Amino acid sequence: MAVSVGQVEQLIEKMAPRSWAEEWDNPGLLVGSSAQKVEKILLALDGTLEVVDEAIKEKASLIIAHHPLMFKPLKNLRMDNANAILPLNLFRNGISFYAAHTNLDKSVLSSSKTFANILGLEQLEYLDSTSEKLIKIVTFVPEKDVDTVRRALADEGVGAGITDGKHSENYLECFYQIKGEGMFKALKGAEPVIGDINELTRVTEIRLESIVEERALARAVRALHRAHPYEEPAYDLIPLINSGKSRGYGMIGYLPQPIALGELWELFLEKLEKNSVDTITGSKVFPLVYDFSSIRLAGDINRKVKKIAISNGSGNSFVQKAVSKGADLFITGDIDYHGVLDSLEASMAVGELGHFLSEIPMMQSLYEYLRGEKTMNDVEIVISAANQVPWISRG
Asked: Within a domain: residue 393?
């Protein structure tokens, strides 16, 4: 039986809540409808014209990508606007587009975690970790509108698995509600949804409360105002001492035994190639062949390494963090010339995989996660063959 786009959204955000995303990011459902039925999903790192054409050919009704289509609002939907062509093609062909970006980078599905597992690292911790302050949000809603307000808050990460409990990530939409009576007197100039001007109005209301991370609070409050029927909804924001769930970018840990840099690098690439096999069926997941031609290594290949730092995607901002934590080797997607020099001066080797190769394992992790969910049994999931390393190989 087909599932809805909204159900797929919920499954992904159980592992990577949208509230984890950076403020500048734009994850979530960017094109389409949560109500749309899905029988086939195409996973891709990027939403390109080639990927959209592939989705059309594959008859996929949903594309799930790592990188969002749009970071800035579109000013028009003209066919001669290059930024509008992709969403227009998606609309025209009835294909929804969902992105999980920096929130996915911080989840257990991240490529950094995959690489750490491939290397067999021990005593793992986040390379750059955070634990958000938690806020209890309490509001009072007419009984008939409570589900609308609850859904609007849940869409912004309220009530998601954000506490430090080990089973927390397995739960979404955690709210408490109790029935009571609210009262107010609207004065001249007000436009009350319920009651009359200058009369005390009593309303059966639901006290609805849950927890939200401080970073997502502003979005949650805006959602509350949009969804609440009152022109001036009542709500309380209560800081909590409870610890929020730890998460972060990258991983750092120790090899079981020290090993020469050159030997470790060859073993890592060999294991990375084997990682493209579906652990459920034993068949190859990726329709593409890993292109290792652009991979680079800087450092003394004979020097023994033991402590390894990893960051998928762009690694420049994590160089000093890796150095300060005593990493012998920093594996990342891409790093600039001066970042490499700074690393080598600090006696830290650098392994550069390229942005694409450093992040495509997330699509496999997402593939295996979704495949393992019972609700997805009748949904076909494929990984894009069109989305590949953009660089031309010399070989």
From this structure: no
**Domain span at 222:** 133-239
Closest CA to 365 of 389, 388, 381, 385: 381
Same domain, 371 and 344: no
Rounded to whole angstroms, the Cα distance separating 125 from 147 reads 39
65 and 94 inside one domain? yes
Question: pTM of the entire structure?
Answer: 0.77
Is there a domain that residue 388 lies in?
no
Residue 255: C-alpha distances to residues 53, 67, 250, 306, 329 (Å): 43, 31, 16, 5, 11
Q: What CATH number is given to the structural domain containing 282?
A: 3.40.1390.30
Give yes or no for a contact between 34 and 5, defined as CB atoms under 8 angstroms apart: yes
Which positions ≥6 away from 233 have C-beta within 8 Å? 139, 140, 141, 224, 225
pLDDT tens per residue, range 206-242: 999 999 988 789 989 999 999 999 999 999 999 998 8
At which residue do the structure tokens 């009835």 appear? 94
Bridge partners (DSSP) of residue 298 are: 350
* Nearest residue to 364 via CA among 118, 69, 45: 45
- Collapsed DSSP state (helix, strand, coil) of residue 84: helix
> Which is nearest to 64 in space by CA: 47, 82, 84?
47
pLDDT of residue 64: 98
Q: Are the C-beta atoms of 389 and 143 separated by less than 8 Å? A: no
Contact 208, 175 (CB under 8 A): yes
Element (H, E) at 307: strand 304-314
Residue 368 neighbours by CB distance under 10 Å: 15
Report strand pairing: 200-213 vs 176-185.
Answer: antiparallel
296-298 and 246-260 strand pairing: unpaired
